[in-house]
Description:
Elements: H1 2-20, H2 24-51, H3 53-56, H4 67-90, H5 101-120, H6 126-135, H7 142-165, H8 170-196, H9 208-235, H10 242-274, H11 278-289, H12 293-315, H13 320-344, H14 369-392, H15 399-403, H16 406-418
Helix pairs in contact: 2-14, 4-5, 4-8, 4-9, 4-13, 5-7, 5-14, 7-8, 8-9, 9-10, 9-13, 10-12, 11-12, 12-13
Amino acid sequence: MDGFGNNRVMSIKAAYRRVVSDGIIYIIFVCLFSALLIVGIASGIHALFIVGSRNAYGTYREIPVAILISTYIFFVVSSTGLCLISSIGHVFGVKDFMPLARRCVYLSIVTILAGFLVIGLEIENPSRMVLYNIISPNMSSNIWWMGTLYGFAVVFLTVEFIFLLSAGKHKQAVIAGFLGVITEIAANSNLGGVFAMMHGRPFWYGPYFPVYFILSALITGCAFIIFFVLLAYKINRCNIDQPTRKALESVGKLAMLLLVIVMVFTIWKMLTTLVSGPSALAAMSALLAGPYSFNFWIIEVCGGMIIPFILLLVSRSKNLIIMFVASVVMIFSIFFTRLDMVIVGQIVPLYWELGVEEYSQLHIYTPSVHEILVVLGGISFCALAFLLGEKIFYGFSHEEQASAPEETKQEINETQELT
């Protein structure tokens, strides 16, 4: 037992040395993201407990949820996508994806915790949410199922990550990973159901969003893992090994396929909404030719679909620099796609169809300084956890060996020797 304790202390000391001795640029970014995280949390606490969220945040009665909810969606949907990308390899046995297992699972945990941080600073009483979620469950509520399932997902993903770090625990990691996939998909579809089951918001209502959220989760997961893996090798100052390069090629090809599918989904969403009721039509008009048209056509369509597809096609999933640029464009665009989805669904007044003069114009929303700082805090948490994780877990070295079954380890070793 003493030996185990000593080894653990030595591992912590070694991780600490790697963090503090990695160069001035790395330390500057760690300090920067730490400061932004503290400012974001302080801003959320100030908004909730000092001035009140109704005074500090840009939301109001007609638009009760806004950028903080869209940021929460951005993070938790990304978590689902990373979990699914990880499961393709070490759960479902596709060898090309195995080198990404550890980092995917770790980032999945980080992004879901970032989502929890943001939504915890959005709701007025987060402690009550946790308490009554347990002692007074409402099993007819999509929100209850979403929160509960994401909570279980964190547990399963954490257990899976621990097993992936442990030698000879592949079977246990597969079981935990499979449970994580089930809970992530269920939670993600329930999140889509929160919007899809709102009769009073025609732009959201219908079966589209539960399915779309799962599809967009996979795309976001592809973008995240390409971005973070390439950035990780730059931080660790090492060349990408052949198994990881091959894994990224497979992710790039999967991303191209998914982008084509989401283009088809988007076209049908537009067509079906354009022939629906006046409220949904007004929302879609605002998106296509109104105040949100720039966001839709330039950021969402061009930046989130067309440009990344062209870049990935040109790169043939082999040029890592072009793939990195494509992932950056996708992540940026997906963030604003989530924001547009949340806001556009609320800008049409509830009495629009009745012709009430008081509600004859679209609502307007502008994020406040407090909201922007909380969003930056959530992003900084994700970035800081990534930077520290790369050093604490030593760049997830030999992760393909930890995630691979015994019969493939010899093949991986031989590949590494050749490269």
